[in-house]
Automatic annotation (TrEMBL):
<dbReference type="GO" id="GO:0005524">
    <property type="term" value="F:ATP binding"/>
</dbReference>
<dbReference type="GO" id="GO:0046872">
    <property type="term" value="F:metal ion binding"/>
</dbReference>
<keyword id="KW-0547">Nucleotide-binding</keyword>
<dbReference type="Pfam" id="PF02655">
    <property type="entry name" value="ATP-grasp_3"/>
</dbReference>
<dbReference type="InterPro" id="IPR011761">
    <property type="entry name" value="ATP-grasp"/>
</dbReference>
<dbReference type="GO" id="GO:0016874">
    <property type="term" value="F:ligase activity"/>
</dbReference>
<dbReference type="InterPro" id="IPR003806">
    <property type="entry name" value="ATP-grasp_PylC-type"/>
</dbReference>
<dbReference type="InterPro" id="IPR013815">
    <property type="entry name" value="ATP_grasp_subdomain_1"/>
</dbReference>
<keyword id="KW-0067">ATP-binding</keyword>
<dbReference type="InterPro" id="IPR052032">
    <property type="entry name" value="ATP-dep_AA_Ligase"/>
</dbReference>
<protein>
    <submittedName>
        <fullName>Carboxylate--amine ligase</fullName>
    </submittedName>
</protein>
<feature type="domain" description="ATP-grasp">
    <location>
        <begin position="120"/>
        <end position="314"/>
    </location>
</feature>
<keyword id="KW-0436">Ligase</keyword>
Length: 409
């Protein structure tokens, strides 16, 4: 029986499902995170064999606390795997593996999945196309980097997530504005702005082999979706990966995983396709995509990747169907007005028009306070739709974007 240490088993939202997947696949799962055990989601608690509360930001302290915990009453007898599917904990997981002699990704390799400059260096070394890039720690270094790279440029935290503190700058004035708003960010990556469409390439791997792969598509580009509140951003799961639209991105994904020598687990890569067809690497994480994208992948093939991942992680195999049956989209909604949700309009009519194409509705109920749409892509909720035909799916997704409205006040 495999014993697993699982970092952050309660957050993000998908984590309880992964914990359950591992437990059902036969692992003893021990949890580690900042919160008290009673604050964990119920599904997580039910599937843990033990739990340690420790401040994950204090990495050295947490390594020591886990070291003392293993082999003691209440702790795991020993550890076979350390798993972290939450972006900020990937380095700590690697430190724990090294400190406890557990196989899997070490710190040096993990940094290539966290540090946006290191990852691009490693990918570029393999001869793959990345945006021109430079790291910078002072305002002057940023100015020098932009000078060298040219406009338009992107400035973003070296280890950011969710497009936070990410700016496109088109001229010297915008550069100074961005610098003023980024004073609290200690280190940034300055990049050539890539004009194109944005995709993901996601996998489950075991022992250096890709067992499952997936391509997602963002409508519109995340940076734009994050700037305009009226937009209902869409994330899509694609059905046909062997088209001129995505084929080269899949190939890039294969080459990137090989260049970074990824071994076992989930990966989530982002890539761009320019209008001339050139594909460019964006970034990669050693974790699943967030914002309910794993649900899209499940709806695409009528599979359960929370179980599929567990099988790959624990046994090195993937026995679920590889068939892609649908195009699937999540449409994220942002209410008009502030405060609490007062009224939801258009859902009944959409159900009448699209019936079984609407596979999930997860909107805030009337009376609930609005979420912060800048901090969470989920915003005030989402609708999931699927259809075997691409153009039909796009049309349904756009109808949900325009004809479903939430009002707050
Ligand atoms: N070099 C670039 N050229 C064009 N757009 C870029 C570039 N770098 C970042 N962006 C835009 O900013 C967004 C956020 O950047 P990036 O994906 O690197 O950061 P992130 O905060 O990790 O994002 P997330 O967590 O949302 O995936 C991208 O999705 C893209 O829209
Ligand atoms: Mg990104």
């Amino acid at each position: 029986m495999t014993t697993v240490l699982f970092l952050a088993p309660g957050y993000p939202d998908e984590m309880p499902l992964f914990v359950r997947g591992l437990a059902r696949a036969g692992a003893h799962v021990y949890g580690l995170s900042d919160v008290a055990a009673h604050e964990l989601p119920e599904m997580t608690r039910r599937h843990l064999d033990g739990y340690l509360q420790s401040s994950l930001r204090d990495e050295a302290g947490t390594v020591e606390a886990v070291r003392r915990w293993v082999g003691r009453p209440g702790g795991p007898p020993s550890l076979d795997r350390v798993i972290c599917l939450w972006e900020p904990g990937v380095i700590l997981a690697a430190k724990l593996r090294e400190a406890l002699g557990v196989p899997g990704m070490g710190v040096e390799q993990a940094r290539k999945f966290r540090d946006k400059d290191l990852m691009k260096q490693a990918v570029a070394q393999a001869g793959l196309r990345v945006p021109y890039h430079r790291r910078a720690s002072t305002a002057q270094e940023v100015r020098d980097a932009v000078e060298a790279i040219g406009y338009p440029a992107i400035i973003k935290p070296i280890d950011g997530a969710g497009s936070m503190d990410t700016f496109r700058v088109d001229d010297a004035k915008e550069l100074e504005q961005a610098l003023a708003r980024m004073e609290h960010v200690p280190e940034v990556n300055v990049e050539e702005f890539i004009d194109g469409e944005e995709f993901t390439y996601d996998t489950i791997c075991a022992n250096g082999k890709i067992l499952y792969e997936h391509v997602g598509y963002y409508r519109p580009r995340p940076l734009i979706a994050r700037q305009e509140e009226w937009i209902s951003p869409q994330t899509m799961s694609l059905r046909d990966l062997d088209t001129p639209w995505v084929r080269d991105g899949v190939k890039l994904g294969h080459d990137v995983l090989q260049a970074l020598e990824f071994d076992t687990g989930f990966t989530h890569m982002e890539w761009y396709r320019k209008s001339n067809g050139e594909v460019v690497f964006g970034e990669i994480g050693a974790r699943p995509p967030g914002a309910r994208t794993v649900d899209l992948m499940n709806f695409n093939g009528d599979i359960d990747l929370f179980a599929g991942y567990a099988e790959a992680e624990l046994h090195g195999t993937f026995s679920q169907s590889q068939e892609r049956k649908y195009y699937v989209a999540n449409i994220f909604k942002r209410a008009q007005g502030q405060g609490r949700i007062r009224h939801i309009e258009g859902l009944d009519e959409l159900r009448r028009r699209f019936g079984p194409a609407i596979v999930n509705v997860d909107l805030l109920p009337v009376g609930a306070p609005r979420r912060d749409w800048v901090l969470t892509l989920i915003s005030d909720g989402y609708v999931t739709v699927r259809h075997p035909d691409k153009e039909t799916l796009f049309a349904i997704a756009d109808a949900v974007g325009t004809d479903l409205q939430l009002y707050a006040g």
